[in-house]
Structure formats: C-alpha cells, structure tokens
Amino acid sequence: MPALVLLGAQWGDEGKGKATDLLGGSVDYVVRFQGGNNAGHTVVVGDQKYALHLLPSGILSPTCTPVIGNGVVVDPAVLLSELSGLNERGVDTSKLLLSGNAHLITPYHTEVDKVTERFLGKRKIGTTGRGIGPTYADKINRVGIRVQDLFDESILLQKVEAALDVKNQLLAKLYNRRAIKPEQVVEELLGYADRLSGYVCDTTLVLNDAIDEGRVVLFEGGQGTLLDVDHGTYPFVTSSNPTAGGACTGAGVGPTKINRVIGILKAYTTRVGAGPFPTELFDADGEALRTIGGEKGVTTGRDRRCGWFDAVIARYATRVNGLTDFFLTKLDVLTGWEQIPVCVAYEIDGRRVTELPYSQTDFHHAKPVYEYLPGWSEDITGAKTFAELPKNAQRYVKALEEMSGAPISAIGVGPGRDETIQINSFLD
C-alpha cells in the first residue's frame, strides 16, 4: 500500500484540506510535516464546515490517526484550543499523535514576529505574525524549545533563558519593548505539559513501522510550492519546506518509502501576502474570482489576491516535487466566463520564457502571455464523472493537464466532500 505526499502546487490555499479529507477514509495516518498555525485548511462535511489551522485534516476521519510531525512548529495554546473546539462539536481527537521533537512557538516568538514585521514597513514580508519564522530561526540557531522540553523543567528554564539573552536585548534596545522574563514563559509553557503529554510520542518510529506493515500514510503539506523557503519566491515565502522533500525531513521517513506525490492545483491562482504574482488581476474579473471562490484566508482572514491559471508555475511544481498526479480544485468557480485566459509563458524584457525564471529580478518583471480557452455556463456542481462536465470544461481540464506536465486524477466541482470527480485512484 502506498505512502503519499499531498501538497500545494501554487502559493497555498489550493484546497488541500478537501483533498486530504477525501482520502482520509482510505488511509490509516495523515501527517502534517511542516508549517504551523499559519496554514489553514477548510473541510466541508455535509452541512458542517471545519476550519483547521494546525491539526491534520485527517482528524475528521474516525478511522484515521492524525500526526503532527517533527517538522511542524506548534503553538500549544492554539493546538489545545483547536482540539477543544473539535471536541465540543463531537469530533474524537484522542488518536492525535504529536512528535516530541516538534518545536514550540513561545510568547516571545510571536512578539518578535509582530514587531519585526512592523519595523520593516514597506519591505514587510506579509507574515501572519504568529511566531512561525522566529521559531524556525531559533530551531536553526539551536536555541529552540521542543515539545519534549515541557517535561523537564530544569532543561526548559535553561533553554528559555538562553533564547531570551539576545531577544530581550533586541526587544528593549531596538524595538523599545519590555524585556520578557524567562520565569513567566516557563510557567506558561509548563501549564500545557499535562494536557499535551498523552499525545506525545516518537512519531518517526510510529510512521516507519506503519509503512513497513503495509498501512497507508498520507503526508499533508501546508502552504504551497511557491512558498517554499528554498524553492519559492524568496524572500516572500514561509520558513519551512512545503515541497515533497520536506515530507522526508519533517516526518522522519526516507524518500524510498514514498510512492506518490500529489499536487493540488486551483483552477485559477491565488496568493496571500506580499510578493510577485504575474497573473494577478485588479479588475472586475479578479473581484469576481474572489467573491465566487470565497477567497479569504482560513487562518488570517485576509482577502486573497486572485489571478488566472499560471501553467508556468504548475510545470515548476511538477519538476521540483516530482509530481505523479494533480488534484484540480474549484473548477466550478470558473462557470460563467465566455473566455478563460491561461498563462502559458512570460514575457521578460522582450523575451518569451516558458519556465519559471531563476532570477528574482526577472520574476518580478515577468508579464503573463495568455492563451484563451472557451468557457461554459452550465452548472457543474452535480457532475459525478468527467463525461458529465460540459465539453468546454473538459477541454479546459485537458489543456491544463497538458500544460502542467502530470495527469489530473481528480477534479473539485464544489466545496462539499462529495462534490469531486475521481478520474484515477490515488491509492493504486
């Protein structure tokens, strides 16, 4: 049975939650391997809508074990609040597993994140202000706090003191903020220990054993390919690796154990925050996509920037992730347009380029080159098979598949769990 990676093939918000939830009943484990509560998933089950920020989408499938891997950064207050909210709605969260090696977001991480972003002014990155970046920075600088540290008060105090030695100087002398007392941070963090202890384990061991036993394991990425800290539109990126390789380091599973890599593509393109976006629309079409598609960030509440489908980005995602399949979402949002532009290349200083520019400068100056595909007006939300789609919708899907470089194996035709056309099984 396969181990699969499911990730965003654009700038995030592609509908990964729906795709993961669709598979949730068929898989044994769903694993978050990077990011934190800056990545939101919306899952619709019947008439119920669930907004998940930190928890894996598999938490909603009773037969599935949800796992938060070592590559995730965890705000304990957010995690416990999210668990409590689901419990109040009748969702069983007792099967959650949390890596003891995952790093914790502390109050000083969120404080540093917010003041730093304000200090940058016009040069701001567009961070969510939730402490994600500073936590990853501490991890790399080897002054981070891990989940396992909650269970040794002496080690926890030493680590918090070491981390605050420099941060308090920064807060007080550069940002004119009060210094943070280590004892207060430790007291707050220790308050989470008992409530989290039942979830904590060696998730790397659990997952490798599960794969060796033939269980189906789904690795769920947050954000998207173009927000990867190494392969995205740097510096307007997240602080982790939401590309396929991140699943290996963020969950402790070797690449030879992964059988399939599924990219989630929206039928158009969106992004949140600052940074280049060649197909971005500032007209009535952009507003229509935003309104019809409900394009507001699950975690941030910010309006998403909207634009037409970008095949250059899709091809890039196929290449850097080794994608085997695409799941195309929100095709229904495009119903009603007489013509639908698709970006097939960029024009940069008079040159036509068909691959993502290597240079940040070139990408900032890239102008989309469009081809126009005929639209459709029929309601497609009731379609159960590809053949039931209008001919022009079929042509649109086929064109995107050819341009993107991997087969489209499923199509989202509405927000509901059952509003999906499955062309090929992801589990074969």
TrEMBL record:
Matching NCBIfam families: PRK01117.1, purA
Residue numbers binding Mg(2+): D13, G40
Enzyme class (EC, first level): ligase
GN (gene name): purA
PANTHER family: ADENYLOSUCCINATE SYNTHETASE
PROSITE patterns: ADENYLOSUCCIN_SYN_1 (PS01266), ADENYLOSUCCIN_SYN_2 (PS00513)
Quaternary organization: Homodimer.
InterPro entries: Adenylosuccin_syn_GTP-bd, Adenylosuccin_syn_Lys_AS, Adenylosuccinate_synth_dom1, Adenylosuccinate_synth_dom2, Adenylosuccinate_synth_dom3, Adenylosuccinate_synthetase, P-loop_NTPase
Listed SUPFAM superfamilies: P-loop containing nucleoside triphosphate hydrolases (SSF52540)
Gene Ontology molecular functions: adenylosuccinate synthase activity; GTP binding; magnesium ion binding
Family per record: Belongs to the adenylosuccinate synthetase family.
Residues that bind IMP: D13, E14, G15, K16, N38, A39, G40, H41, T128, R142, Q223, T238, R302
Record organism: Streptomyces tardus
EC number: 6.3.4.4
Catalytic residue positions: D13 (proton acceptor), H41 (proton donor), K139
Pathway stated in the Swiss-Prot or TrEMBL entry: Purine metabolism; AMP biosynthesis via de novo pathway; AMP from IMP: step 1/2
Name of the molecule in the record: Adenylosuccinate synthetase
Positions annotated to bind GTP: 12-18, 40-42, 304, 330-332, 412-414
Cofactor: Mg(2+)
Keywords, ordered alphabetically: Cytoplasm, GTP-binding, Ligase, Magnesium, Metal-binding, Nucleotide-binding, Purine biosynthesis
HAMAP family on file: Adenylosucc_synth
UniProt keyword annotation of Transmembrane helix present: no
Entry note: cofactor: Binds 1 Mg(2+) ion per subunit.
Compartments in which it is found: Cytoplasm
Cited CDD domains: AdSS (cd03108)
One GO BP annotation of this record: 'de novo' AMP biosynthetic process
Organism taxonomic ancestry: Bacteria, Bacillati, Actinomycetota, Actinomycetes, Kitasatosporales
